[in-house]
UniProtKB/TrEMBL annotation:
Compartments reported by the entry: Secreted
Coarse class of the protein's main subcellular location: secreted
SMART domains, per database record: Sema
Sema domain residues: 34-434
Organism superkingdom: Eukaryota
Signal peptide as annotated in the record: 1-22
Key words, A-Z: Developmental protein, Differentiation, Disulfide bond, Glycoprotein, Neurogenesis, Secreted, Signal
InterPro entries on file: Semap_dom, Semap_dom_sf, Semaphorin, WD40/YVTN_repeat-like_dom_sf
Gene3D superfamilies according to UniProt: YVTN repeat-like/Quinoprotein amine dehydrogenase
Name of this protein: Semaphorin-2A
Keyword Lipoprotein listed: no
Length: 434
């Protein structure tokens, strides 16, 4: 979020709001008549943090042990009290002059040649954070309770984007592996989902292969069971009638160790499927561009904000997906194109009910040469992941939302899902009965 301000935190006490009464007709629970409240109306319950010269508050994470909020802004890291957003510690993290000059010499502007924080992850008592560092990305491990204490510094290449304009996502597993989806090079032409750190070998998606990733914009990532899931939007390689963007869910096995001869240093378990969010009708109206997600782990639900293309009429929708529906799509047939002149056709999944392989002495016991050949060419799933309801849970014309958070509170007779939506300039929230 750009500008001189701004983090707004809604207190958990907002959970007592009962603006949505239980519906007797459950079909009405998905309609747009649910209460909607604007940012201005909830102003009395908001707290705000500002810091001089600090802009682009783009990364937030929590230290649950100390009940603190850690924030990354351009050239700054902050620790804040979770209760009222009061400042505990501010640490400046700027690029050195030599790095800035090298950035200017490559044709980049003063605005671009700053350190934009793009990775901010808590691991025990440490904070792992990465910044663009004037197109020379760098990562540090810091003491969480004192951000000036830097334990080590490593290259941010393949862990953090070079450009502040490139979207990225990253997570750390309990085993210490870092999964990052970002651009791997200076011009941003080599996007990848990449694993590093930890004890498992580094792996990435295939390089310069549009059937794996085609100019993606990465949105989010989650560590769920045996898999790491990634959500993004990209140019649809399977769409033959002009250029269009589709939203995707992708996953890899966390114990993937790459191939032998084929797919060496490359994922052998990477799959992706299209997410559908549309207004139904004789001619459906599609919201193709995923902007933000929220994983409601206790209910295995993925909430997503989808918008129209920037060159079309502005519109936004919230669609909700069951994790089981996403998993089911990965069990189904693939969508496969034999060559550039062939049609995209369904191809039976050679390994239905796919499970992550077992690792023994550095080799998959059940990974054959045929498995590697299949993994190299079968990437895209044929089935489209459908949302929980045919009508989006929320639709708004003439607006584009870019951020969301979901909370579940107990109403008088039912659970209520509170959805917070932000455009960057304002925030709305709405209620959805479960």
């Amino acid at each position: 979020m750009k500008g001189t301000c701004v983090i707004a935190w809604l207190f958990s006490s907002l959970g007592w709001w009962r603006l949505a009464q239980p519906e007797t007709d459950t079909s009405q629970c998905q309609r747009a008549e649910h209460p909607v409240t604007s940012y201005k109306e909830i102003g009395p319950w908001l707290r705000e943090f500002r810091a001089k010269n600090a802009v682009d508050f783009s990364q937030l994470t929590f230290d649950p042990g100390q009940k603190e909020l850690v924030v990354g802004a351009r050239n700054y890291l902050f620790r804040l009290q979770l209760e009222d957003l009061s400042l505990i510690q501010a640490v400046e993290w700027e690029c050195d002059e030599a790095t800035k000059k090298a950035c200017y010499s490559k044709g980049k502007s003063k605005e671009e040649c700053q350190n934009y924080i793009r990775v901010l992850l808590v691991s025990g008592d440490w904070l792992f954070t990465c910044g663009t560092n004037a197109f020379t990305p760098v990562c540090t491990n810091r003491t969480l309770s004192n951000l000036t204490e830097i334990h080590d510094q490593i290259s941010g290449m393949a862990r953090c984007p070079y450009s502040p304009q490139h979207n990225s996502t990253a997570l750390l597993t309990a085993g210490g592996e870092l999964y990052a989806a970002t651009a791997m090079d200076f011009p941003g032409r080599d996007p990848a989902i990449y694993r590093s750190l930890g004890i498992l070998p580094p792996l990435r998606t295939a390089q310069y292969n549009s059937k794996w990733l085609n100019e993606p914009n990465f949105v989010s990532s989650y560590d769920i069971g045996n898999f790491t899931y990634f959500f993004f939007r990209e140019n649809a390689v399977e769409h033959d009638c002009g250029k269009t963007v589709f939203s995707r869910a992708a996953r890899v096995c966390k114990n993937d160790i790459g191939g032998r001869f084929l797919l060496e240093d490359t994922w052998t378990t990477f799959m992706k499927a299209r997410l559908n969010c549309s207004r139904p009708g004789e001619v459906p109206f599609y919201y193709n561009e995923l902007q933000s997600t929220f994983f409601l782990a206790e209910l295995d639900l993925i909430y997503g904000i989808f918008t129209t293309n920037v060159n079309s009429i502005a519109a936004s929708a919230v669609c909700v997906f069951n994790l089981s529906a996403i998993s089911q799509a990965f069990n189904g047939p693939f969508k496969y194109q034999e060559n550039s002149r062939s049609a995209w056709l369904p191809y039976p999944n050679p390994n239905p009910n796919f499970q992550c392989g077992t690792v023994d002495q550095g080799l998959y016991m059940n990974l054959t040469e045929r498995n590697l050949q299949d993994a190299q060419k079968f990437i895209l799933m044929h089935e489209v992941v459908q949302p929980v309801t045919s009508v989006p849970s929320f639709m708004e014309d003439s607006s584009r939302f870019f951020h969301m958070v979901v909370d579940v509170v107990q109403g008088r007779d039912t659970l209520i899902h509170v959805i917070y939506l932000a455009t960057g300039r304002s925030m709305w929230y709405r209620l959805r009965n479960e």
